[in-house]
Specification:
Distance between the termini: 62 Å
Largest sheet: 8 strands, antiparallel
Radius of gyration: 18 Å
Oligomer: single chain
Order of helices and strands: EEHEEEEEEH
Number of strands: 8
Structural class: alpha+beta
Helix content: 10-25%
Strand content: 35-45%
Length: 148
């Protein structure tokens, strides 16, 4: 009997100098975790990188104003483990390592999720796009945009 597999994917870039904020040399890592059905080849080579890389690039652009070329991004997988069911979202943890002279700092960021459609088999690229449209129109999404 087949079962879903738990995938752990790490996407990172760096070391790279933060020219915008001048924070020093950064290494940025994203840890993606999800349980999926399907073949290992399909999930590792096609689906997960096609979801993870754009999400990683967008996150880095939002947080640091840095725009990454595909050649600056690395992807690695840990060995898959059996899972009981398929997930309906991918969880993502980000960690940023800053090196400036002899000072080194590791900073964790809040966990984010990437929702999947059809029981985990498809990525919804417009999920965040719909929210961004509201922000562009001046709506913060918190219901406090009324003028006093």
């Amino acid at each position: 009997m087949e079962s879903a597999l738990l995938y752990d994917m790490t996407i990172w870039t760096g070391p790279k100098y933060d020219e915008v904020r001048g924070r020093g040399v950064l290494t940025i890592e994203g840890y993606f975790k999800v349980a999926l059905w399907g073949t290992i080849h399909q999930n590792r080579n096609e689906f997960l990188p096609s979801v993870g890389i754009p999400f990683f690039k967008d996150w880095v652009a939002r947080q640091f104003g840095m725009y990454l070329a595909d050649s600056e991004i690395n992807v690695r997988f840990q060995r898959e483990r059996p899972a009981e069911t398929e997930d309906d979202e991918i969880t993502v943890d980000f960690r940023v390592f800053t090196f400036r002279g002899d000072r080194r700092l590791a900073e964790s960021y809040p966990q984010e999720t990437i929702p999947l459609e059809s029981g985990g088999s498809e990525y919804d690229p417009d999920y965040y796009g719909e929210q961004e449209d509201d922000f562009e129109n001046g709506d913060s999404g918190w219901g406090d945009d009324e003028e006093a």
